[in-house]
Amino acid sequence: MAKTLAEKILSRVSGRDARAGDLVIAPVSRVMVHDSVIDAVIAGLRDLGRDRVWDTSRVAVFVDHAAPAPTPVVADSHRVLREWVRQQGIATFYDAGEGVCHQIMVEEGYCEAGTVIVGSDSHSNSYGAVGAFGAGMGATDIAVALALGRTWLRVPESIKVTFTGRPRKGVTIKDAIMRVVREIGTDGARYACVEFHGASALPQGDRITLAGMTTEMGAKAGIVVGTPEAPDWLFPDHGAAYANEVRIDLSALEPQIAVPPRVDQVVDVSEAVGQPIDVVFLGSCTNGRLVDMRQVAATLRGRRIAPEVRLEVVPASRRQFEDAMADGTLLALSAAGGVIGSSGCGPCLGRTGGVLAGSEVCLSTANRNYRGRMGSADASIYLGSPYVAAVAALTGVIDDPRPYLEATDEELDALIARRRAERPGRGAASVRSGDRSRELMLSAARSGVAMEIDD
Amino acid sequence: MSRAWVFGDDLDTDQIVPGRYAPFMVGQDKFHLYAFCDARPGFAKEVRAGDILVGGENFGCGSSREYAVAALAKLGVGGIVAKSFARIFFRNCVNLGIPVVESDEASTLVHDADEVALDLVAGVLRSPAGDARLRPVAPFAREILDAGGVVAYLRAHGDFPKLA
Ligand code: SF4
Question: Which CATH number fits the domain that encloses residue B40?
Fold first, then answer.
């Protein structure tokens, strides 16, 4: 009988003819653990009566969720984690500042297509970016997987998502996946695997955006069909049975906005135009890569962000950080007034690196906008693409990014000025450090006392 | 008898224990005291061992944080009956020994603060307005729940329950 990708992978790894609805016990090719749950995982292993993980070469450990440590309690937990890693002899260990677990798992090649990988994080679905069956699980499940090298799974039904056409300028794969969440809902893919068709040619980063955000539909896994990393046998059969099918014509897609507090409360950007924004967050495993940072820098075109807005930039990994440094993107974002944080989850989950105050409104490029996700329960979080984030930073409001991308320099300044003028006064304009000292240097140079100042 | 705490649809784990009160933010001995602190102030103080949570669709969606379930286990929650569960939350409950049972009727039949009794053998949640029928729990999960969670099960048997 014809099989979906999930049925194929789970049949192969479990050695049974697995169909949607069956329970299987599957060996895992890797287990991912991060700082947020390490105490519970270690406690789970201890409670299981196991001192050692089943295979040190197949365990990957990350310090990314609250990193660098924001409080003494967290710092202690990180210390315990490091001691555990050393004592277990786990070589695949990425400490604070190396980046978000999922980004590293995929980009550093730890996700083998066609295998099952479990992670202590709900966005472990991201590994479907390269054709792995990645599933997020709780600490006890992870402890069990670390002890046995196996996990139990109910073979999920699959939902087929097919993309056609090419997105227009200013529309991204983030808009596409938000559109899918809008169709399917936060619960529409519960226990299911979302299979993406028509996405195999996308860059790896875009595929991470797709697979990772299947978590927001309740999915157990999200897998991109036909990735360059996939072995020959890894394709869904013709005639495989799907619980649901969704087709999205990318060429007709508008930029999308998720309105707080639900990820599936998604509207075309035109319905959110003018919404004031206090903080813009550019980062996360969903949109913290070089291409995302470049899209923002390109939209800013050397302009400064609105005086009363804060822009927080957190590259998803050290590699993305350094690439963005090398090509000048980070310098451009800093010069625009952005704050660059060390690689990791940053403010995405409200633990470190700029949490939101009550009544603050954030435009985030991440994947979640639940109440309290990024700090105060009274803050509101809109989700959007890096282009929308760039425009929100420039103007202080949500707007359709496309006219900004098409505008001449004069038109761009006029657009920005108009939106800023319409925005109700909120917050206070920060002085940019460096401006005054540069000014002083210039006037000193003009009056001929530059040498003294340089001393 | 236990008390019913009734919640709506799409109750996410950030509402059960907000991330800022994670065990590693406030300590292992305190995080459960923040259960529902935003969504249902007073819950952690008033809940009694054996109380039952009743919910709608997609109970426990959002982050995979197991400490949301661990907090409920620490507070002695005796079971959760909802129209449907988010999958990681469901697994976490089975693993930590909290019965999670699906029922289409419970959320309409049962009102907040009702006296209720969860009868897994008969497959019903008893309430003043009548019995809400429960969907049967899969034998695999039932074996783990009966052992008091997956850790207890594995300690006793060394491996997962046998698959049919
Ligand atoms: S960046 Fe955000 S969504 Fe991604 S793993 Fe970190 S906390 Fe989770």
Answer: 3.20.19.10
Contacts of B100 (CB under 8 A, 6+ apart): B79, B80, B82, B85, B89, B90, B93, B94
Residue B150 counted as domain residue: no
| Pairing verdict, β A221-224 and A158-164 | unpaired
Q: Is cis: bond before A68, omega within 30 of 0?
A: yes
Tell me if B58 sits within 8 A of B13, measured CB to CB.
no
Per-residue pLDDT tens for A195-214? 999 999 999 999 999 999 99
What phi and psi values does residue B24 have, to the nearest 5 degrees?
-85, 0
Q: Is B97 left (phi over 0), alpha (psi -120 to 50) or beta?
A: left
How far apart are alpha carbons A312 and A283 in whole angstroms? 8
Residue B147 lies in a domain: no
Tell me what pLDDT residue A40 has.
87
pLDDT number for residue A448: 76
A375: left (phi over 0), alpha (psi -120 to 50) or beta: left
Reference B16, options B70, B91, B76, B82; nearest CA is B70
- Cβ burial, residue A109 (10 Å; 0-12/13-18/19+): exposed
**ipTM higher than the 0.90 cut:** no
The chain B residues in contact with chain A (CB within 8 A) are 10, 12, 14-15, 18-20, 22-28, 38, 57-58, 61-67, 69-70, 84, 86-88, 91-92, 95-96, 138, 140, 149-151, 154-155, 159-160, 163-164
Q: Is A345 on the interface with B (CB under 8 A)?
A: no
Pick the CATH number of A256-448 from 3.30.499.10, 2.60.40.10, 1.20.58.110, 3.30.200.20: 3.30.499.10
Interface of A with B in 259-298 (CB under 8 A): 262
Domain residue ranges of chain A, discontinuous segments joined by + = 5-251, 256-448
Number of domains chain B is built from: 1
pLDDT at B20: 83
B80 belongs to a structural domain: yes
Domain span at residue B110? 2-135
Residues 6 or more apart whose CB falls under 8 angstroms from that of A320 comprise: A99, A103, A288, A289, A290, A293, A343
Q: A-B interface: how many C-beta pairs under 8 angstroms?
A: 131
Give the tens place of pLDDT for each residue, A348-391: 999 999 999 999 999 999 999 998 899 999 999 999 999 999 99
The whole-angstrom distance between residue B118's C-alpha and the CA centroid of its chain comes to 12
- Return the residue matching tokens 């039949």: B109
For domain A5-251, the question of CATH label 3.30.499.10 is answered with: yes
Contact B19 A373 (CB under 8 A): yes
